[in-house]
Specification:
- The chain contains 17 helices and 13 strands.
- The chain is an alpha/beta fold.
- A seven-stranded parallel sheet has the order 3-2-1-4-5-6-7. The protein has a six-stranded parallel sheet with strand order 10-9-8-11-12-13, sandwiched between helices.
Length: 406
Protein backbone atom coordinates (compact mmCIF):
# COMPACT_ATOMS: atom_id res chain seq x y z
CA UNK A 1 0.00 0.00 0.00
CA UNK A 2 1.33 3.44 -0.98
CA UNK A 3 2.20 5.63 1.96
CA UNK A 4 0.66 9.08 2.10
CA UNK A 5 3.12 11.90 2.70
CA UNK A 6 1.56 15.23 3.60
CA UNK A 7 3.52 18.35 2.66
CA UNK A 8 2.48 21.38 4.70
CA UNK A 9 3.47 24.47 2.72
CA UNK A 10 4.20 27.75 4.44
CA UNK A 11 0.82 29.37 3.78
CA UNK A 12 2.44 32.39 2.12
CA UNK A 13 2.22 31.42 -1.56
CA UNK A 14 0.41 28.65 -3.46
CA UNK A 15 1.63 25.30 -4.77
CA UNK A 16 1.95 24.71 -7.71
CA UNK A 17 4.20 27.79 -7.61
CA UNK A 18 2.12 30.08 -9.82
CA UNK A 19 3.05 33.11 -7.70
CA UNK A 20 6.74 32.26 -7.41
CA UNK A 21 8.63 31.58 -4.20
CA UNK A 22 11.89 29.63 -3.81
CA UNK A 23 10.53 27.00 -1.42
CA UNK A 24 7.32 26.67 -3.42
CA UNK A 25 9.33 25.98 -6.59
CA UNK A 26 11.42 23.39 -4.76
CA UNK A 27 8.28 21.58 -3.65
CA UNK A 28 6.89 21.68 -7.17
CA UNK A 29 10.14 20.26 -8.57
CA UNK A 30 9.81 17.39 -6.12
CA UNK A 31 6.23 16.74 -7.25
CA UNK A 32 7.23 16.82 -10.92
CA UNK A 33 10.05 14.32 -10.41
CA UNK A 34 7.68 12.08 -8.51
CA UNK A 35 5.36 12.00 -11.53
CA UNK A 36 8.21 10.64 -13.69
CA UNK A 37 9.11 7.75 -11.36
CA UNK A 38 7.51 4.32 -11.52
CA UNK A 39 8.02 3.76 -7.78
CA UNK A 40 6.41 7.07 -6.93
CA UNK A 41 5.22 8.46 -3.63
CA UNK A 42 1.70 9.53 -2.81
CA UNK A 43 1.80 13.20 -1.87
CA UNK A 44 -0.90 15.24 -0.16
CA UNK A 45 -0.12 18.96 -0.52
CA UNK A 46 -1.82 21.54 1.68
CA UNK A 47 -1.60 25.01 0.17
CA UNK A 48 -3.30 28.38 0.13
CA UNK A 49 -5.81 28.66 -2.70
CA UNK A 50 -5.03 30.27 -6.03
CA UNK A 51 -7.11 29.83 -9.18
CA UNK A 52 -4.13 29.40 -11.49
CA UNK A 53 -2.51 26.95 -9.05
CA UNK A 54 -5.71 24.92 -8.92
CA UNK A 55 -5.67 24.62 -12.72
CA UNK A 56 -2.01 23.55 -12.69
CA UNK A 57 -2.78 20.99 -9.96
CA UNK A 58 -5.02 19.07 -12.36
CA UNK A 59 -1.93 17.92 -14.28
CA UNK A 60 -0.67 15.79 -11.38
CA UNK A 61 -1.71 12.14 -11.07
CA UNK A 62 0.16 11.24 -7.88
CA UNK A 63 -0.63 14.33 -5.83
CA UNK A 64 -3.79 15.32 -3.99
CA UNK A 65 -3.93 19.08 -3.51
CA UNK A 66 -5.94 20.50 -0.64
CA UNK A 67 -6.41 24.21 -1.20
CA UNK A 68 -7.38 26.47 1.67
CA UNK A 69 -9.24 29.60 0.63
CA UNK A 70 -8.44 32.71 2.64
CA UNK A 71 -11.55 34.86 3.34
CA UNK A 72 -11.53 38.37 1.90
CA UNK A 73 -11.83 39.95 5.36
CA UNK A 74 -8.62 38.18 6.46
CA UNK A 75 -6.74 39.51 3.43
CA UNK A 76 -8.09 43.01 4.03
CA UNK A 77 -7.11 43.01 7.71
CA UNK A 78 -3.62 41.80 6.79
CA UNK A 79 -3.21 44.74 4.41
CA UNK A 80 -4.28 47.10 7.18
CA UNK A 81 -1.79 45.54 9.61
CA UNK A 82 0.94 45.85 6.99
CA UNK A 83 0.07 49.51 6.42
CA UNK A 84 0.21 50.21 10.17
CA UNK A 85 3.56 48.42 10.51
CA UNK A 86 4.98 50.39 7.60
CA UNK A 87 3.55 53.88 8.09
CA UNK A 88 2.95 54.15 11.83
CA UNK A 89 5.45 51.86 13.54
CA UNK A 90 8.05 52.20 10.74
CA UNK A 91 9.01 48.53 10.94
CA UNK A 92 11.99 47.50 8.83
CA UNK A 93 11.34 43.78 8.24
CA UNK A 94 7.96 44.35 6.68
CA UNK A 95 7.51 40.88 5.22
CA UNK A 96 6.97 39.57 8.74
CA UNK A 97 3.80 41.67 8.91
CA UNK A 98 2.32 40.84 5.50
CA UNK A 99 0.54 37.52 6.11
CA UNK A 100 0.02 37.32 9.88
CA UNK A 101 -3.73 36.65 9.94
CA UNK A 102 -3.68 34.66 6.72
CA UNK A 103 -1.15 32.23 8.14
CA UNK A 104 -2.99 31.83 11.45
CA UNK A 105 -6.17 31.07 9.53
CA UNK A 106 -4.29 28.69 7.24
CA UNK A 107 -2.51 26.84 10.07
CA UNK A 108 -5.78 26.37 11.92
CA UNK A 109 -7.29 24.76 8.82
CA UNK A 110 -4.19 22.58 8.47
CA UNK A 111 -4.53 21.53 12.11
CA UNK A 112 -8.12 20.50 11.49
CA UNK A 113 -7.07 18.47 8.46
CA UNK A 114 -4.31 16.69 10.40
CA UNK A 115 -6.82 15.86 13.13
CA UNK A 116 -9.34 14.51 10.65
CA UNK A 117 -6.88 12.42 8.62
CA UNK A 118 -4.02 10.09 9.49
CA UNK A 119 -1.12 10.58 7.10
CA UNK A 120 1.85 8.22 7.22
CA UNK A 121 4.34 11.09 7.32
CA UNK A 122 4.26 14.88 7.48
CA UNK A 123 6.75 17.37 6.05
CA UNK A 124 6.58 20.87 7.52
CA UNK A 125 8.09 23.29 5.02
CA UNK A 126 10.27 26.17 6.13
CA UNK A 127 8.69 28.05 9.05
CA UNK A 128 8.64 27.06 12.74
CA UNK A 129 5.14 28.52 13.16
CA UNK A 130 3.93 25.46 11.27
CA UNK A 131 4.48 23.43 14.42
CA UNK A 132 1.36 25.20 15.70
CA UNK A 133 -0.67 22.91 13.43
CA UNK A 134 0.70 20.01 15.50
CA UNK A 135 0.35 21.79 18.84
CA UNK A 136 -3.28 22.70 18.27
CA UNK A 137 -5.63 19.79 18.87
CA UNK A 138 -2.57 17.86 20.19
CA UNK A 139 -1.78 16.51 16.74
CA UNK A 140 1.86 16.03 17.75
CA UNK A 141 0.83 13.06 19.92
CA UNK A 142 -0.93 11.43 16.99
CA UNK A 143 2.00 11.95 14.63
CA UNK A 144 4.90 11.34 17.03
CA UNK A 145 7.87 9.88 15.14
CA UNK A 146 6.25 10.73 11.81
CA UNK A 147 6.79 14.46 11.31
CA UNK A 148 9.79 16.03 9.61
CA UNK A 149 10.87 19.66 9.35
CA UNK A 150 12.40 20.92 6.08
CA UNK A 151 14.65 23.76 7.20
CA UNK A 152 15.50 26.43 4.61
CA UNK A 153 16.27 29.27 7.04
CA UNK A 154 17.51 29.90 10.54
CA UNK A 155 14.93 29.90 13.35
CA UNK A 156 13.49 33.22 14.48
CA UNK A 157 11.77 31.58 17.47
CA UNK A 158 9.92 28.47 18.59
CA UNK A 159 6.49 30.11 19.04
CA UNK A 160 5.65 28.14 22.15
CA UNK A 161 6.37 24.83 20.40
CA UNK A 162 9.87 23.99 21.67
CA UNK A 163 8.91 20.60 23.15
CA UNK A 164 7.13 19.60 19.93
CA UNK A 165 10.03 20.81 17.78
CA UNK A 166 12.54 18.74 19.75
CA UNK A 167 10.45 15.61 19.07
CA UNK A 168 10.80 16.09 15.29
CA UNK A 169 11.87 12.80 13.68
CA UNK A 170 14.34 14.40 11.25
CA UNK A 171 15.41 17.93 10.38
CA UNK A 172 16.00 18.08 6.63
CA UNK A 173 18.46 20.94 6.06
CA UNK A 174 19.45 22.67 2.82
CA UNK A 175 23.09 23.09 3.85
CA UNK A 176 25.59 22.08 6.52
CA UNK A 177 25.57 25.70 7.60
CA UNK A 178 21.86 25.66 8.43
CA UNK A 179 22.13 22.24 10.12
CA UNK A 180 24.88 23.49 12.46
CA UNK A 181 22.94 26.67 13.19
CA UNK A 182 19.73 24.81 14.01
CA UNK A 183 21.47 22.16 16.08
CA UNK A 184 23.13 24.87 18.16
CA UNK A 185 19.85 26.78 18.52
CA UNK A 186 17.84 23.74 19.63
CA UNK A 187 20.70 21.96 21.44
CA UNK A 188 19.66 18.49 20.30
CA UNK A 189 21.34 15.35 18.92
CA UNK A 190 23.19 15.97 15.63
CA UNK A 191 21.94 12.61 14.33
CA UNK A 192 18.51 14.17 13.89
CA UNK A 193 19.90 16.34 11.07
CA UNK A 194 20.27 15.33 7.43
CA UNK A 195 21.37 17.42 4.44
CA UNK A 196 19.23 17.69 1.31
CA UNK A 197 20.83 20.21 -1.02
CA UNK A 198 18.53 22.38 -3.09
CA UNK A 199 18.07 21.76 -6.80
CA UNK A 200 16.78 23.22 -10.04
CA UNK A 201 15.59 21.71 -13.29
CA UNK A 202 18.85 21.76 -15.26
CA UNK A 203 17.12 21.11 -18.59
CA UNK A 204 14.89 24.14 -18.06
CA UNK A 205 17.83 26.47 -17.51
CA UNK A 206 20.04 25.00 -20.23
CA UNK A 207 17.33 25.30 -22.84
CA UNK A 208 17.75 28.51 -24.84
CA UNK A 209 14.86 29.86 -26.91
CA UNK A 210 16.61 32.03 -29.49
CA UNK A 211 13.40 33.86 -30.42
CA UNK A 212 12.69 34.77 -26.79
CA UNK A 213 16.30 35.79 -26.33
CA UNK A 214 16.02 38.10 -29.33
CA UNK A 215 12.77 39.57 -28.01
CA UNK A 216 14.34 40.42 -24.64
CA UNK A 217 17.36 42.04 -26.27
CA UNK A 218 15.01 44.16 -28.37
CA UNK A 219 12.65 44.95 -25.50
CA UNK A 220 15.39 46.34 -23.28
CA UNK A 221 17.66 47.62 -26.09
CA UNK A 222 20.57 45.43 -24.99
CA UNK A 223 22.27 44.72 -28.31
CA UNK A 224 26.07 45.21 -28.20
CA UNK A 225 25.99 45.59 -24.40
CA UNK A 226 27.33 43.37 -21.65
CA UNK A 227 24.49 42.29 -19.36
CA UNK A 228 24.64 41.91 -15.58
CA UNK A 229 21.82 40.10 -13.82
CA UNK A 230 20.50 40.34 -10.27
CA UNK A 231 17.68 37.99 -9.34
CA UNK A 232 15.93 37.82 -5.98
CA UNK A 233 13.70 39.71 -3.61
CA UNK A 234 14.38 43.40 -3.21
CA UNK A 235 15.32 43.25 0.44
CA UNK A 236 18.46 44.46 2.27
CA UNK A 237 19.80 40.95 2.90
CA UNK A 238 20.25 40.17 -0.80
CA UNK A 239 22.86 42.90 -1.32
CA UNK A 240 21.08 44.89 -4.03
CA UNK A 241 21.99 48.19 -2.33
CA UNK A 242 25.68 47.26 -2.30
CA UNK A 243 25.52 46.17 -5.94
CA UNK A 244 24.00 49.47 -7.06
CA UNK A 245 26.65 51.38 -5.10
CA UNK A 246 29.35 49.27 -6.77
CA UNK A 247 28.08 50.12 -10.26
CA UNK A 248 29.16 53.73 -9.74
CA UNK A 249 32.75 52.46 -9.39
CA UNK A 250 32.77 50.15 -12.44
CA UNK A 251 35.22 51.40 -15.08
CA UNK A 252 33.78 49.39 -17.97
CA UNK A 253 30.94 51.51 -19.33
CA UNK A 254 29.08 49.52 -21.97
CA UNK A 255 26.87 47.43 -19.68
CA UNK A 256 23.35 47.21 -18.29
CA UNK A 257 22.13 45.66 -15.05
CA UNK A 258 18.84 43.79 -15.17
CA UNK A 259 17.17 43.59 -11.76
CA UNK A 260 14.60 40.80 -11.56
CA UNK A 261 12.48 40.65 -8.46
CA UNK A 262 10.28 42.36 -5.92
CA UNK A 263 9.95 42.30 -2.16
CA UNK A 264 6.50 40.72 -2.18
CA UNK A 265 6.32 39.20 -5.66
CA UNK A 266 3.14 40.25 -7.49
CA UNK A 267 1.67 42.30 -4.65
CA UNK A 268 1.58 45.98 -5.54
CA UNK A 269 3.09 47.03 -2.24
CA UNK A 270 6.40 48.89 -1.96
CA UNK A 271 8.55 48.65 1.12
CA UNK A 272 10.58 51.58 2.43
CA UNK A 273 13.70 49.75 1.24
CA UNK A 274 12.29 49.38 -2.28
CA UNK A 275 11.51 53.08 -2.36
CA UNK A 276 15.15 53.81 -1.47
CA UNK A 277 16.34 51.39 -4.19
CA UNK A 278 14.14 53.21 -6.72
CA UNK A 279 16.00 56.44 -5.92
CA UNK A 280 19.38 54.73 -6.35
CA UNK A 281 18.31 53.39 -9.74
CA UNK A 282 17.31 56.89 -10.84
CA UNK A 283 20.77 58.13 -9.79
CA UNK A 284 22.36 55.53 -12.07
CA UNK A 285 20.29 56.87 -14.97
CA UNK A 286 20.35 54.40 -17.87
CA UNK A 287 22.58 51.71 -16.33
CA UNK A 288 19.82 49.77 -14.56
CA UNK A 289 16.62 48.19 -15.83
CA UNK A 290 14.18 47.12 -13.13
CA UNK A 291 11.88 44.42 -14.49
CA UNK A 292 9.86 43.78 -11.35
CA UNK A 293 8.59 40.28 -10.61
CA UNK A 294 9.17 37.79 -13.44
CA UNK A 295 7.16 34.51 -13.43
CA UNK A 296 9.41 31.52 -12.91
CA UNK A 297 8.42 30.01 -16.26
CA UNK A 298 10.15 32.97 -17.99
CA UNK A 299 13.22 33.27 -15.78
CA UNK A 300 15.52 31.07 -17.90
CA UNK A 301 15.20 33.48 -20.83
CA UNK A 302 16.76 36.23 -18.72
CA UNK A 303 19.65 34.03 -17.62
CA UNK A 304 20.20 33.15 -21.29
CA UNK A 305 21.01 36.78 -22.18
CA UNK A 306 23.19 37.45 -19.12
CA UNK A 307 26.99 37.67 -19.19
CA UNK A 308 27.37 37.74 -15.40
CA UNK A 309 25.07 37.10 -12.43
CA UNK A 310 25.82 39.29 -9.41
CA UNK A 311 24.24 37.95 -6.22
CA UNK A 312 26.08 39.55 -3.27
CA UNK A 313 24.12 38.31 -0.25
CA UNK A 314 25.14 40.18 2.90
CA UNK A 315 23.42 37.85 5.37
CA UNK A 316 24.01 34.18 6.15
CA UNK A 317 22.02 32.94 3.16
CA UNK A 318 21.43 29.22 3.78
CA UNK A 319 21.18 28.05 0.13
CA UNK A 320 19.73 30.53 -2.40
CA UNK A 321 18.23 28.94 -5.50
CA UNK A 322 19.46 31.87 -7.59
CA UNK A 323 23.01 30.56 -7.12
CA UNK A 324 22.07 27.16 -8.56
CA UNK A 325 20.02 28.76 -11.35
CA UNK A 326 23.09 30.76 -12.40
CA UNK A 327 25.25 27.64 -12.39
CA UNK A 328 22.71 25.63 -14.41
CA UNK A 329 22.46 28.47 -16.94
CA UNK A 330 26.24 28.58 -17.34
CA UNK A 331 26.43 32.18 -16.16
CA UNK A 332 29.62 33.26 -14.33
CA UNK A 333 28.81 34.35 -10.82
CA UNK A 334 29.87 37.04 -8.37
CA UNK A 335 28.66 36.28 -4.86
CA UNK A 336 29.75 36.25 -1.20
CA UNK A 337 30.94 33.72 1.38
CA UNK A 338 27.57 33.91 3.10
CA UNK A 339 25.99 31.02 4.98
CA UNK A 340 25.70 27.93 2.77
CA UNK A 341 26.65 29.62 -0.52
CA UNK A 342 30.22 28.15 -0.57
CA UNK A 343 28.61 24.68 -0.34
CA UNK A 344 27.06 25.31 -3.76
CA UNK A 345 29.34 27.72 -5.64
CA UNK A 346 33.04 27.01 -6.14
CA UNK A 347 35.99 29.20 -7.08
CA UNK A 348 35.92 27.62 -10.55
CA UNK A 349 32.48 29.00 -11.39
CA UNK A 350 32.22 32.01 -9.08
CA UNK A 351 34.11 34.89 -7.59
CA UNK A 352 33.30 34.52 -3.89
CA UNK A 353 33.85 37.74 -1.97
CA UNK A 354 34.26 38.37 1.73
CA UNK A 355 31.60 40.39 3.51
CA UNK A 356 33.57 43.30 4.87
CA UNK A 357 33.92 47.05 4.47
CA UNK A 358 35.58 46.49 1.08
CA UNK A 359 32.66 44.56 -0.41
CA UNK A 360 31.39 47.38 -2.64
CA UNK A 361 34.86 48.01 -4.06
CA UNK A 362 35.44 44.29 -4.59
CA UNK A 363 32.12 43.87 -6.41
CA UNK A 364 33.12 46.68 -8.78
CA UNK A 365 36.59 45.17 -9.38
CA UNK A 366 35.10 41.72 -10.01
CA UNK A 367 32.59 43.12 -12.52
CA UNK A 368 35.39 44.91 -14.38
CA UNK A 369 37.52 41.75 -14.40
CA UNK A 370 34.78 39.58 -15.90
CA UNK A 371 33.45 42.16 -18.35
CA UNK A 372 36.91 42.72 -19.83
CA UNK A 373 37.97 39.07 -20.08
CA UNK A 374 36.03 36.78 -22.40
CA UNK A 375 38.44 33.96 -21.61
CA UNK A 376 37.80 34.03 -17.85
CA UNK A 377 34.04 34.26 -18.38
CA UNK A 378 34.01 31.31 -20.78
CA UNK A 379 36.03 29.10 -18.40
CA UNK A 380 33.74 29.99 -15.50
CA UNK A 381 30.65 29.34 -17.63
CA UNK A 382 31.92 25.86 -18.51
CA UNK A 383 32.66 25.09 -14.85
CA UNK A 384 29.26 26.42 -13.78
CA UNK A 385 27.39 23.96 -15.99
CA UNK A 386 29.60 21.13 -14.77
CA UNK A 387 29.05 22.03 -11.11
CA UNK A 388 25.28 22.26 -11.55
CA UNK A 389 24.89 18.59 -12.50
CA UNK A 390 24.92 17.46 -8.86
CA UNK A 391 22.05 19.87 -8.08
CA UNK A 392 19.56 18.30 -10.50
CA UNK A 393 15.93 17.70 -9.55
CA UNK A 394 16.43 13.98 -10.26
CA UNK A 395 19.13 13.77 -7.57
CA UNK A 396 16.95 15.88 -5.30
CA UNK A 397 14.06 13.43 -5.56
CA UNK A 398 16.29 10.37 -5.03
CA UNK A 399 17.89 11.88 -1.93
CA UNK A 400 14.52 13.00 -0.57
CA UNK A 401 13.16 9.49 -0.99
CA UNK A 402 16.10 7.98 0.90
CA UNK A 403 15.54 10.41 3.78
CA UNK A 404 11.80 9.95 3.98
CA UNK A 405 11.95 6.16 3.79
CA UNK A 406 14.50 5.94 6.60
Amino acid sequence: MTKEIAIISSGFLPIPATKGGAVENLIENLLKENEKNIENLKFIVLSVYDLEAQKEAEKYKNVTFKFIKIPYIIKLLDKILYFIAKKIFLKKKLQSYRYILQRLYYLNKVSLDLKKNNYNKIILENHPTQFLSLKWRKNYKKYVGRYYYHCHNEFSGTYGCSKIIIQTHKFICVSKFIAKSLQKYLNIDKNKFVILKNSVNNDFFKKVDLKEKQKLLEKYDLFDKKILLFTGRIIPEKGIKELLSALKLVKYKNFKLLVLGASLNELKVKTTFEEMIDKKIIELQDKVIFTGYIPHKNISDYYAIADIAVLPSIWDDPAPLTIIESLASGVPLITTNSGGIPEYATSNSAIILKRNDQLINEIAKSIDLLLTSDDIRNKMAHSAKKDSISFSTNNYFKNFKIIIED
